[in-house]
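User: For a benchmark we're assembling, each entry needs the component sequences followed by a predicted structure for the full assembly. Here are entry 17's components. Please fill in the structure.
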Amino acid sequence: MSGSATAQLIDGKAIAAALRAQLADAVAKLKAEHGVVPGLAVVLVGDDPASQVYVRNKHAQTVEAGMASFEHRLPASTSREALLAMVDQLNKDPLVHGILVQLPLPAHLDATEVLNAIDPDKDVDGFHPVNAGRLATGQALFVPCTPVGCELLLRSVIADPSGLHAVVIGRSNIVGKPMAQLLLAANCTVTIVHSRTRDLAGLVRQADIVVAALGRAEFVKGDWIKPGAIVIDVGINRIEQADGKTRLVGDVDFASASQVAGAITPVPGGVGPMTIACLLRNTLIAARYRLGLDGQV
Ligand code: GUN
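Assistant: Structure for entry 17:
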């Protein structure tokens, strides 16, 4: 190996911007033809700094796409009953098509209980067991935003991944499991590896497609990547450098992996920008679904 090969960079920022522009057109069309403006309600409990940034970005991009944005900021001391009452009110509100309760919730609140209280037909996060079941049985309605974004990035370099071996690193309900379902639906051969897997590196070496979503900085090394493989890096980790400054890195060691892969997503600017764009896509799907229109956008 000369080590001189360099992977194609998958530009998530540009692909997300193009998707948002396409959604804005579809929203304008829905409004003109049906008089309906898709509405997204976001509930933020407490003052987690990262969540505040997410929620601000969500609001701005929702409005920019021509959708209605409803923000509900509740204090960290909010009771279980008050939060469930808020969810119930949003479930009943006809102007609200999508509901997102920002995670993480303060420790005294049970995230599973709260997420399960969201009307599955408004669950634009795709976290409700009904939506996980719909995805697993070929009836997908709302698929979690990050895996959908990963699939769109993958398909930007390979339109049909049918028959390829995809290895998903991580088994969370938010990324790993739904990602595996999407790849299976796309006719990939799918392996899920995780912290208890024996010979994780050996399995990754067999992958035509690697999706890294385990949350450990630069865990996947370049010599685990099959030459020409497509690498989608979901990780966002802040690491401290020798000079004391911090830097954002993925779950993949980009410097070495990009010498071997055929195509790779950078961090930042890869999967990250796709997530909110896919949330807006799910909100449009929710509005269309309620009107009895085809869910596809
Ligand atoms: N916190 C960070 N990302 C997300 C997300 O996609 N959905 C929700 N509900 N909370 C998050």
